[in-house]
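## retry 2 of 3
previous attempt timed out at serialization; input unchanged, resubmitting
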Amino acid sequence: MAPAKTTFLKIAATLMRPTHGSLHVEGIDIRKEPEQARRHIGFLSHNTFIYRDLSAIENLRFFSRLYGVDDSTDRLLGLLERVGLRRRANDGVRAFSRGLQQRMGIARVCCITLL
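## retry succeeded, writing output
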């Protein structure tokens, strides 16, 4: 029998070990190398976990440094471009609509994973 959605998501996020079967993320076996697999997993909930008092680029730089990934301006601007926020890079997130904040959340997830 297939696992329930919640169970699968916990296994995929490496929060729970599977009782049988296998799961690979970007070719990485989550049982053997969970830390390495986590580098390729992002999570976006209703709460975007972005800081409203920072600009878009400052948010991405903060999270990149926090997770030890490349925080070069070119990379971060490229991520903002992908979500349609390049021209708002230096604007405070506080001024963003809910939809733009969701896009910012997507950029945040992408900046801390190895996409």
